[in-house]
Design a protein that fits this description.
The chain is about 30% helix and about 15% strand. By secondary structure, the protein is α/β, with parallel strands linked by helices. It has a single domain (about 10-260), classed as Rossmann fold (3-Layer(aba) Sandwich), CATH 3.40.50. The strands form 2 sheets. The chain has a 7-stranded parallel beta sheet with strand order 1-10-9-6-2-3-5, with helices on both faces. A 3-stranded antiparallel beta sheet has the order 4-8-7. Helix 1 (about 20-40) packs across helix 2 (about 55-60).
């Protein structure tokens, strides 16, 4: 115990966890979240959408955790899509997580892409996060260009929840969900990078060779708004769960594997 009988907080910095498969990496991510919920039943989680966290949500559902006191905030939402649209993030979260767990509906927060006053909504979303004491753990994916949330390259590294215009690359990447690129909305609401950096812990998942360059730049490159995820190098507690293809461009991958393999028992997941 430290002075004042407060528990010691270990500053772990960025931890790179490389596993043979996406399934194995997701197992670790699920155990990290489960440990948090069991130790803090009223935890506040930041959640992500897209293909990367789907496996994570299935594993968390199978763990039969108690979500009754958990509060959630989603990273982003398309502007202009009806909530009932199959590609809205409201639909995604209810279909893939919320309807399968015992979470209270009034504890769920997802940006409203149909708000009458978007700037006012974004300010209120930030206030809602502050009102519950901040986010304990934020789940993140990463775009092929290094975006987190929908904070596209050149986003301010101090940005807050706001409207963003999607790049052509992001719209192309997401076209597979909509059937064609022309159907992908141009605008979104997203938590800002500054908002993400205020979470007490960030948990980033990335799988597949198409994420390898973005991961290498984010983990080992300079901190730059061109790769927004690189700002996570400045966060005190970040865990990056990768499969081998996503880790394939990392220059120090062998060291990261050695570190993970030699963790003390009390740090194991």
């Amino acid at each position: 115990m430290s002075a004042g009988n407060s528990p010691i907080v270990w500053n772990e910095l960025m931890e790179i966890i490389i596993q043979p498969t996406a399934d194995a990496a997701t197992d670790i991510a699920a155990r990290i979240i489960a440990r948090l919920l069991r130790g803090k039943p009223d935890a506040v989680l930041g959640l992500a959408t897209g293909s990367t966290p789907l496996r994570l949500y299935r594993k968390l559902i199978a763990m039969d955790l108690d979500w009754s006191r958990v509060t959630t905030f989603n990273l982003d939402e398309y502007i202009g899509l009806p909530r009932e649209h199959p590609q809205s993030y409201h639909s995604f979260m209810w279909e893939n997580l919320f309807r399968h767990i015992n979470i209270a509906a009034d504890h769920i927060h997802i940006p409203d892409g149909n708000a009458a006053d978007i700037p006012d909504f974004c300010a209120c979303y930030e206030q809602q996060i502050a009102n519950v004491g901040g986010i304990d753990l934020q789940v993140l994916g990463i775009g092929t260009d290094g975006h987190i949330g929908f904070n596209e390259p050149t986003s301010s590294l101090a940005s807050r929840t706001r409207i963003k215009t999607l790049t052509g690359q992001t719209r192309l990447d997401n076209a597979r969900f909509f059937g064609s690129e022309r159907d992908v909305p141009h605008h979104v609401i997203t938590m800002g990078i500054g908002t993400i950096m205020e979470a007490r812990q960030n948990l980033l998942l990335a799988f597949g060779p198409n994420k390898a360059r973005a991961i290498a730049e984010a983990v080992e490159g300079p901190i730059t708004s061109i790769n927004p995820a690189s700002i996570l190098q400045m966060h005190p507690v970040v865990k990056v769960c990768l499969d081998e293809p996503a880790a394939s461009d990392l220059q120090r991958a062998d060291y990261y594997r050695w570190v993970y393999a030699h963790k003390p028992d009390w740090q194991a997941y």
